[in-house]
What we know:
It holds the Pfam family AAA_16. The chain is mainly alpha-helical and about 900 residues long. The chain is built from 48 helices and nine strands. Helix content is about 65%, strand content about 5%. Strand 8 and strand 9 form a beta hairpin.
Amino acid sequence: MTSAPQGPGRVAPPGGGPVRAQLVDRTDLLNRIRSALDGQGSVLLHGPAGIGKTALLDTLGSEAGSAGEAVLRSSPTAAEAGLPHLALIDLLGEALPGLAEELPAHLRHALERALLHSAPEPGTATDPLAVRVAVLEALRRLADRGPVLVLLDDTQWLDQASRQVIAFAARRLAGRPIRFAVTERTERADSEPRMTELCPGPVTEIPVGPLGELAVGTLLQERLGLRLSGLTLTRIHAASAGNPYFALELGRALGTPGAEAALATDPGRPLSVPQRLRELMAERLTALPADARQALTVLAAARTGTGLPADTAAPLTVAVEHGVLVHGPGGALQFSHPLLAELVAADTPAPARRAAHRLLADRTADPVERARHRALAAAEPDPALAAELDAAAATALTRGAPATAAELLRLAADLTPDDPDAATRRLLAAARNAATAGLPDLARACGERLADAPAADVRVHAALLLARLLGPDHPGADPLLATAADDAHGTPALSAAVHQERAVRALHRADHTAGFVELAAAEHDAAAAGDTDLLVELLAVRAPIELVTDPAHGLALLERGRSLSEGRPLTAAGVFVRQGLAVAHLRTGAVDRALAEVEALRTEVERAGRTEDLCNVHYIAASVYERAGRCTESYAAGRAAYELRERIEPNPGPARVLGGAAELAGGSAERAADLLDSAIRAAESDRDREWLAYAHGLRGRVDLLTGTPEAAAGHFLEARRLLRRLQFTDPSLFLLDADLAEALALAGRPGEAADALADASVRVDRLGREVVRLGLHRAEAVLAAATGDPRTAADTLRERIPAEHPYPLELARAHLVLGQLERRARRRAAARTALCEAAARYARAGCTPWLRHTEAALADLDPAAADPTPLQTHLVKLVREGATNREIAAALHLSVKAVEANLTRLYRRHNVRTRAELAQLDDH
């Protein structure tokens, strides 16, 4: 999972003025740049126009200025490339008056004339060598006063005179506290830069690459207020190739009235390419002969990687020579930049586009692709073709491609305007498949066309789909449900579906009274209609609530739901029931059964291509793997859930909770904190109490890891308050109680800790959740040590720790607390034994945040005698390789402060004072 975007900066149009914005998804790149600039290094950032190089310089300059460094900057443009010494004026024009008296007279006069601060004497020429030496001396004098950062932007437009002077100075600035950050526009990120001569050594060349799809979505939301998801976001990301400037320009074009809805309704529609992007890309196209441009129309209409017939491909040789096309994997021709394909499609008249699709349909053997191209070639209604598209959609579904099925069904609906009933049913099927595939924009666009459908069942199901897409708390769902209830009156199957949706919303608000009334009505109507699939859905809604009050009954409901769904096509309800079974087994400690259930389910959902369900299954799998002590797999599943949910869900809170949970399982506490802080803000904004509760609970665990129990207690108390408002009281649901009591005890609030433990113990007894008892014993020991004798507390906890436990991380945590209590009891040998046991268990589980925490406790236990931890051994290895503190932090997923703290411990342990002395030590 990528971290939440951080850091100020800007994305600037190439050659244009600055446009302020937040830097997005550049944290790792910035850290790499900072590491390269540590000391007296230089960096050369290179990449295509608009990729964000200027924004990175903005951030570096802002940071250096805030730290008190002198910042010199030049940002030339193409129009200024012929003006001599213009970059020198930018860099030194303001600094010259303060330097003038320090320079020898002949150098001062030469520099003043070059910078146009004084006019040359009649009949005399400025000595080029004097200017070069004067600039060198000026930079040296500035560096003598303090650190200097020189920022040279867009050096491809640097005037020749300035380039020669700066290159002269760069070769002679070694040993001075002066750093250079230089940018150069290249055709691609992997192209070879040419401006290394402008950088004092050592120089690090760093390509600036594209943003990922999630980062493009964040950029468009932060800059333009566009909350894109699904197919629309994928189109923008693909067309821009992750270039932030291109994505913003395409996003602005989408911001015009009706443009976003039109694109969502018709995914085959070409993107509108703004004039500023045309100016960057179209020159290569206009240079091509007519037959090549006509052949490009066919290539633009084809799927990427499609091989063209020889007679069509022959004229495209010249397009390769002009850099419009390249040979992709397998040798197939493809556009050198995806925006060129959008330009070709946008500029091709409709008859020519249809002709291109006819040609491709005639040359395609695959029935799904052939039907799609035939539909895009059609100019008038064609019921026979619509039927062919229905069959192709069914084939796509057997291949696990609901997104393709949705596109085919939408095309089929458009080909049958004279049969409104058939057209609207195809649109409803398109909307449902789009939602299943994680394409909410296409689902919404199709659903909104069904308000006037002739059949009541189509109108009802469309309204319910639109309500679900809005989310459980959105007030806009209420009128949709009211309309659906009116249309459903007198039809049991439809009434059951409306009651079900109302039940889900009431239960989400923790209004269980209203929720169970609606569920009862839904079950009555579903039974009257003989709707088995709906009965499974209703069991999936009721069972999780019953699990909280009567676990045996809840488990029986889930088993009944699974039995009803066996042998039927995979549905969201069937998936939910099986997820619920996995969770139910997990809460009782039957981890093996939970693992078997969720792993089989994930395989089936992946095969079916059900993106939305897959996101939820990844989420449950991450929880199961974490409690099973398989944190590497938990991290992978959690990251997958985070990335999928961020892509398809317009509200970012749930996705970032999943990302934070993944980091706590197998990533880093620092990244977890960033994601969870972002999740809390988002969930508060969306008034989503459930995900807000989970975000606070996980954030409290980060605070326990980082040694701030008072802050942890605050987060845990808020999580408990929110969960109780939702009537989520099962102590095995979130494993919150022990952490809350421990944090309260460590924060000096023993009375509240004792109350929390007593309350948890009552619920454990009532629901039979013995699997969480070890955690309560751990917290009781912490409380006993805080209010009495640590030795007695440690002895009692040691006796209560079993040899094995269904939740391996709970066992590791118990040994960790035992080690901490033994240290307080001044029994260092026993403390070391317990901590080593905890570290070994965390290492086997792959739980890196808690492993690092435990290793730090071991290092602090007896720094003069203890063996170095694996973390410290790796750190010393990196020191010997010459890595900076920032590079070490990035490699070990630590903060720079954590690296510094570990170095301090190693200095004390080995009685050394410098990195060089540490690097020279023998391994033993």
